[in-house]
Amino acid sequence: MIQATFQPLRHMSLAPHVQRSAAPGSLIDPSQWFALQVMGRRHETRDIVVFDLALADGATLPDFTAGAHLEVKVGGLIRHYSLCSSPEDRAHYRIAVQRETAGRGGSVLLCDTFGPGDTLEVRGPFNHFALQWSAAQPPLLLAGGIGVTPLLCMALELTAAGLDFELHFSGRSLEHMAFLPLLRSGVFGHRVHLYADDGRGVAPIDLPTLLGSGMPGRHLYVCGPGGMIDAADRIARAQGWVGDHIHFERFGAPAAQPPAAADSKACEAFEVEVASTGRRIPIAADQSIVHALAAVGVHIPMSCEVGVCGSCRTRVLAGVPDHRDLLLSPEEQAANTEFTPCCSRSKTPLLVLDL
Length: 355
Ligand code: FES
Fold this sequence. Notes:
Rossmann fold, six-stranded antiparallel β-sheet, globular, alpha/beta, Ubiquitin-like (UB roll), five-stranded parallel β-sheet
């Protein structure tokens, strides 16, 4: 492993109320794979490594908004890492990687072998977790563990806009929680609240009290372990938060495929129509939509293949999908205007997709 001194990025000294400045455009096409060089790395906690990435020639990177992530090729896998640097910084991207020994090996390879001077192949940034806010109703940000990464980026953006948001961050213990020096530095004023499950130093989080009653127009953003997301979603809805104002992003694939829908209306076999060409492709009962389409040359970007990451999210122009993802909210699923063809299927004999 190559070790080097870590250089703090500009956002570490970002003052409140700094307005975003216009930056020159980037020549990079974020929809295509491109190379980024590792400029610095450091351990944020024992199991979390932060990487600073930049173009080798120092050129301007594609812009992004808070909540965006990069797709990173590592060890034959494509992993998603939220950007946790300021969207103002167009010279560097910062990602934080949790070393998951029980994972598929991508994070271990990154954490154990990548250092300054090494190159990573990436695509993006893409954003399936975009922040919506109004000055009248600043959002509530709720982070668990490594799920703090997109919410840190949101906190930087909201601070730059001068908004009085709240960030509540919970972890197993303080020593497992990333970015504590920055979060405690005063950059965010009184807006950051910390919790630890072990109760050492700070109290455990109390979701029912924290979520209180939802206020009309207020948005809730949650990123963390699945159990925390499910609990926050359930409690928030019970306490009056508006369903389409609850946004979440899961940061890991589930242990197994999402269970097949028990809906008897689901079709075993059906057809998918590619709207741009009118071509209809049969989808067999044992075939995923993305693989059936790829077999005839229609490629949809894909990563997790289990309905978590959003890479394959596709607009539905006609027909009713049988949603099997863990990504879309109940409201988004009920609208039937988008679905995840990596794992979802159809309730109608034909689905017309915006491809
Ligand atoms: S590939 Fe991740 S949601 Fe479909």
